Amino acid sequence: MPAKADLYRTAARMLGTIDKRGWVLRYRYGDRRLLEDVVLPELNRDPGVETLLLVGCAWYTRHYPQLLPRKRVMTMEIDPAKAAFGGDSHIVANMADITEHLPSESLDAVICNGVLGWGLDEPDTVEAAFAGAATCLKPGGLFLLGWNDIPPRNGCPPDTIAALDGLEISDIPGLDTHSLIALERNQHCYQAYRKPDKG
Hints:
This protein is α/β, with parallel strands linked by helices. The chain has one domain: Vaccinia Virus protein VP39 (Rossmann fold). The protein is 25% helix and 25% strand. The protein has helices at 2-20, 30-45, 123-136; strands at residues 51-55, 72-77, 89-92, 107-113, 137-148, 168-170, 179-183, 188-194. Strands 1, 2, 3, 4, 5, 6, 7 and 8 form an 8-stranded mixed β-sheet that branches. Strand 7 and strand 8 form a beta hairpin. The protein is globular and about 50 Å long. The mean pLDDT is 92.
């Protein structure tokens, strides 16, 4: 673990140096580009969104908080070594334990992309994670899910997750659709939900 953490810290420093020179190295795939070029900028422009949680960190997500300069951004990752790729406000935890780290109704948006089927796999853990995210969302808050609808990544498709039943379908920020296949080759889908307003 220390060697992996050292490697990630070194990579994060090198990438940070490159980023500061204006050469942000990004994942080249369309699903990430859609998130970076459309969805996150739209959230940054939305005056109703103040506090966001980005779940899942890697070298290609390190610059996501900078895409949301008007917002309070927190990141969450289960692997402590990947904290080097998290934001200034970073939580090392399993998403299933989200309510142990964040108060109820404290978030305007939760972005969970590339986590379901990539470590968040067991149905009970998925239910706990998504129910916890819903608890932490303010009324009207956004839950954006990005997942791969191909085996073995689609063991818990969204239509089987009871925790999502309490949310309303919503348009993906910047797009006029609730659901979209953003990358054909791995069937990477985005789906948006909102916590119902009270009353």
